[in-house]
Design goal:
- The protein has four helices and three strands.
- The protein is α+β, with helices and mostly antiparallel strands.
- It has one domain: GIY-YIG endonuclease, CATH 3.40.1440.
- Strands 2-1-3 form a three-stranded antiparallel sheet.
- The longest helix has 13 residues.
- The chain is globular.
- It starts with 6 loop residues before the first strand and ends with a helix.
């Protein structure tokens, strides 16, 4: 992994309890976007604010982060919840 060039797969928990999974270079900046503190953010999370960052996983590059994101999105909710630390 190349320090600042790292990519991350992240998961946020929305106000309604749903989970949103995405990829970003800077998950904390992306969290600010999802919560409306900065421009951007997903349409899904705009209607479910505030959101809380509950999981991050480093990836070596964008392609591997996107593949992992797609994999996690296919998982059932219970399996996703098992990734989130208590």
């Amino acid at each position: 992994m190349e320090g600042t060039h790292a990519w991350y797969v992240y998961m946020v928990r929305c106000r309604d309890g749903s989970l949103y999974t995405g990829v970003a270079r800077d998950p904390s900046r992306r969290l600010d976007e999802h919560n409306g503190h900065a421009a951007g953010g997903a349409r899904y999370t705009r209607a479910r604010r505030p959101v809380t960052l509950v999981y991050t996983e480093p990836a070596t590059d964008r392609a591997s982060a996107c593949r992992r994101e797609a994999e996690l999105k296919q998982w059932p909710r219970a399996r996703k919840l098992a990734l989130i630390p208590e």
